[in-house]
Design brief:
Keywords: Membrane, Transmembrane, Transmembrane helix. With about 450 residues, this protein is α+β, with helices and mostly antiparallel strands. It is built from 15 helices and twelve strands.
Length: about 450
């Protein structure tokens, strides 16, 4: 619907478009012989900006036009009531001169955001201590400062018919794969929802629909990690209201890389990366290996170790499989409880709960000492993985591995890993194989972190 030249008529139309919201306000100014009305949402605007950059300039330049008088950078014009209503909920002030149907849209939003802080989920001893925040413009400012080149391309989208979630896609024009960008734009154009909660919704809606526990997009809160992946030709997605960035396409090996690897010597960086991959294997297979050994094949172990296992399980009535599952579920419950509770209480519950439960279940002969050690080591091994999504996948994959190991012994454990490798080999991330570059010329930056002087080629 087009706007009217009458101020009262437009006020009624805008109020109806905003469903009679009570924070919709108007103010009238008499500038010379002209009557000017300001429409705004008082919950969204900054009164100081309106006073300094709109009202005072208008009163000082009574014969100038709106565009020439105001000192607001973000300026627009429209004759549509729907566009004006959308501008109001975005924090803009709509200005109209009596007798004219044209509406002037001036950005006067009140910006409240937390300051740039240190990363919470991806801390490192060496490297940058900046983290992304919930404000999209601040995040784009960080990335522009880190990559000060015109080659960095930023494209913005609005997703969600009702939520109008702002999404920014970052890529390096001369490096990024144009076919990959086209495929992404196609997939993002097919999103047709009222509400898009990013980046979680985007992760599910954009990636391939093949069922898998393994993440196919890298989620990070570190600007330096985003920069490193952009320089490799990957694509980054930032969203309004989220401090996380989606990066794709990524391979399996990207989830074991840390920015700290490149701040240390290449030998130490390679050792740490290989340790993470080894701990990933332990997190999945160690409880299953323990169950298989004590259930079927204790003779494989050295005699002294077998005696130790036998003595620790002598008075335990619960079968090993139920021991392992019970302890893993208990550990997951403790972990979730420490996350959901306030920090001081959560840390106390985690420590006290772990000690009390561990002591009680052993003294009551419900769980063997060795099982407590195995599950504790499994938990620590999963926490060393830098990616939360990959760490969670490792923890939950331990359950089917335990079951197959209980059914078939060490053969079940071997079958589990065979099925796991087969599944990983079949996964694609935006058309790129999940194990891509793992065993090719680019192995210098996958399983290990090669010397910087050797890392001269980007992934093909």
């Amino acid at each position: 619907m087009n706007s009217s030249s009458f101020l009262d008529t437009n006020e009624k139309l805008l109020k109806a478009s905003l469903s009679e919201s009570t924070d919709f306000k108007t103010s009238d100014l008499l500038v010379g012989e002209r009557r000017i009305r300001l429409f705004y949402m008082d919950s969204m605007i900054d009164p100081a900006i309106i006073q300094e950059h709109v009202i005072r300039p208008l009163l000082s330049h009574s014969f100038a036009g709106i565009r020439e008088a105001v000192t607001v950078l973000d300026y627009g014009e429209t004759v549509l009531i729907s566009e004006a209503a959308t501008a109001l909920v975005e924090g803009k002030t709509v200005v109209q001169i009596e007798g004219q149907a044209r509406l002037y849209l001036l950005k006067t939003a009140l910006d409240k955001e937390r300051s740039i802080n240190i990363p919470v989920n991806e801390r490192v001893l060496r490297g940058s201590n900046q983290a992304l925040i919930e404000n999209l413009q601040t995040n784009l400012n960080l990335m522009r400062k880190l990559i000060a080149t015109p080659d960095l391309v930023v494209k913005t989208y609005k997703l969600g018919r009702q939520s109008n979630t702002n999404v920014a896609v970052l890529s390096m024009h001369s490096i990024a794969d144009k076919d990959m960008l086209s495929e992404f734009e196609k997939r993002i154009g097919n999103i047709d929802l009222d509400y898009v909660e990013a980046p979680g919704f985007l992760q599910e809606l954009i990636q391939d629909r093949k069922f898998s526990l393994f993440p196919r997009m890298l989620v990070t809160e570190r600007p330096d990690r985003v920069r490193a992946n952009l320089m490799d030709g990957k694509i980054a997605v930032l969203t309004e209201g989220s401090p996380d960035c989606l990066i794709f396409p990524v391979s399996f090996w990207a989830f074991f890389q840390s920015p700290e690897d490149y701040q240390l010597g290449w030998l130490l960086g390679s050792a740490l990366r290989f340790l993470r991959i080894l701990c990933f294997i332990f997190a999945i297979g160690l409880p299953g290996a323990y169950v298989a050994l004590v259930t079927f094949d204790p003779r494989i172990l050295p005699f002294e170790i077998a005696l130790t296992l036998q003595s620790s399980m002598q008075y335990i009535a619960m079968p090993p499989i139920f021991e392992a599952i019970f302890m893993l579920i208990t550990l997951d419950i403790l972990r979730e409880a420490t996350i959901r509770l306030p920090s001081p209480i959560g840390q106390t519950i985690g420590v006290v709960g772990g000690i009390v439960l561990g002591t009680v279940v052993v003294q009551s002969n419900l769980i063997s000492n060795m099982m407590v050690i195995v599950v504790a080591f499994t938990a620590v091994a999963s926490f060393i993985i830098p990616s939360y999504e990959m760490s969670a996948a490792a923890r939950y994959l331990a359950y089917p591995v335990i079951w197959l190991s209980f059914m078939f012994g060490l053969i079940g454990l071997e079958i589990s890993f065979l099925l796991l490798i087969t599944h990983l080999a079949r996964i694609n991330t935006m058309g790129i194989p999940y194990f891509f570059n793992g065993f090719s010329d680019s192995i210098l930056d996958t399983v290990i972190r090669g010397p910087i002087r050797k890392l001269k080629k980007r992934p093909k």
